[in-house]
Amino acid sequence: MQIPDELFRRARGMAAAKEWSFAELVRRGLEQMTARHPGQGAGDGEVAWHLPDPVEQGWG
Questions:
Q1: How crowded is the C-beta side of 57, counted as CA atoms within 13 Å?
Q2: What is the distance between the alpha carbons of residues 5 and 28, in angstroms, rounded to a whole number?
Q3: What is the pLDDT of residues 48-57, one digit of tens each?
Q4: What global pTM score does this model have?
Q5: Within a domain: residue 47?
Q6: How high does pLDDT run on average in the chain?
Q7: Which residue range forms the structural domain that includes residue 23?
Q8: Domain count, the chain
């Protein structure tokens, strides 16, 4: 796994500020991403994530 230096520095700082280990920060981040994008890269039988339908904003 490779993490750009700046991202790693910010993540390490965030983990320290919350008094979490870096591993805990990564685990929580992965949990959020997989919850927000279910089915992305999932196994058999799961529906892949797709963009939601556009919503009319009333502009123009």
A1: 4
A2: 20
A3: 667 778 877 7
A4: 0.59
A5: no
A6: 83
A7: 5-36
A8: 1
